[in-house]
């Protein structure tokens, strides 16, 4: 077949499990700041929920002065905002922990980003009125299933402290990249929580409940908790803010290159401030070179693209390292913070290449 007529090869999601469906974004092949929904990573604890959109209503109740039930039409009539934001699974890169940990063996692709549009959660909470003493806002999804560790059926539910729930950019989203949210990503409504790992961004919202205590559901009190010790729960603390991190997208790990000029490129992101610096090392971390940060128009919630032009004349094997630092001064560590559920991996990234 004539090369010019061959179809363009497209990347696909990398499957980690089918039931429930968990698939990675092919992040090494992404060359854009907006991930199409078909390549957006998928993270599920249970099977996809079943409900009728034609009968969809959103209740807001609990410690509020006026419980309300909103129709989709009413929600769409509130002033909206659009935010470009990274969503990263807290288990992203879990497979790189040593010693190995149980759980979905994510590599580098449990992360995606795009434009989410919706109404600020605070707008809806102001409509219902927060009672004095309200502490947390519980967002419950329609997805549910049995947890074998507890021998009981649960819906997926998480809470936010009042301060985070009232953040102006915490939104109840109904669009992704200008279109209704795809069903597999939370249609018709999904909570979007900037700067926190994506377990907080509850999909398929069923109801919102304000409480005057601390939420103790299993996806908050058992899962999504950092446990620093293998055998005990001492010193445990909740998973919240995204760690500063970076990923090398090019060259690929174990690539064979020729001598000459090569572009090293990737992305960096953080849950505090913005990325202020990305450094590259070709000699195992002895010396560090400053990468170029690509012009960015984001509001601080999106990843930062970066690149470095590497001229190599000597044949041999090289380990390329990338290290990001954010504007609060947090650098990527040499070693990750080991925790027994494998959350928040953010050690300096590396790929190995051979130059012939």
Structure notes:
- The chain has 356 residues and is mainly β.
- The protein has two domains: 14-238, Oxidoreductase, molybdopterin-binding domain (Sulfite Oxidase, Chain A, domain 2); 245-355, Immunoglobulin-like, CATH 2.60.40.
- The chain is built from four helices and 23 strands.
- The protein has helices at residues 72-77, 121-128, 162-165, 218-221; strands at 14-18, 21-24, 57-62, 68-71, 81-88, 111-120, 136-147, 152-161, 171-176, 179-180, 190-192, 205-211, 225-226, 237-238, 245-250, 255-257, 260-269, 275-281, 289-290, 292-293, 304-312, 316-326, 349-355.
- It has a five-stranded mixed sheet. Strands 5, 6, 9, 10 and 11 form a five-stranded antiparallel sheet that branches.
- The longest helix has 8 residues, at 121-128.
- The chain is globular, with a radius of gyration of 22 Å.
- The two termini are 31 Å apart.
- The model has no long low-confidence stretch (mean pLDDT 95).
Question: Topology of this protein?
Answer:
Elements: E1 14-18, E2 21-24, E3 57-62, E4 68-71, H1 72-77, E5 81-88, E6 111-120, H2 121-128, E7 136-147, E8 152-161, H3 162-165, E9 171-176, E10 179-180, E11 190-192, E12 205-211, H4 218-221, E13 225-226, E14 237-238, E15 245-250, E16 255-257, E17 260-269, E18 275-281, E19 289-290, E20 292-293, E21 304-312, E22 316-326, E23 349-355
Parallel strand pairs: 3-12, 16-23
Antiparallel strand pairs: 1-2, 3-4, 5-6, 6-9, 7-8, 7-12, 9-10, 9-11, 13-14, 15-17, 17-21, 18-19, 18-22, 20-21, 22-23
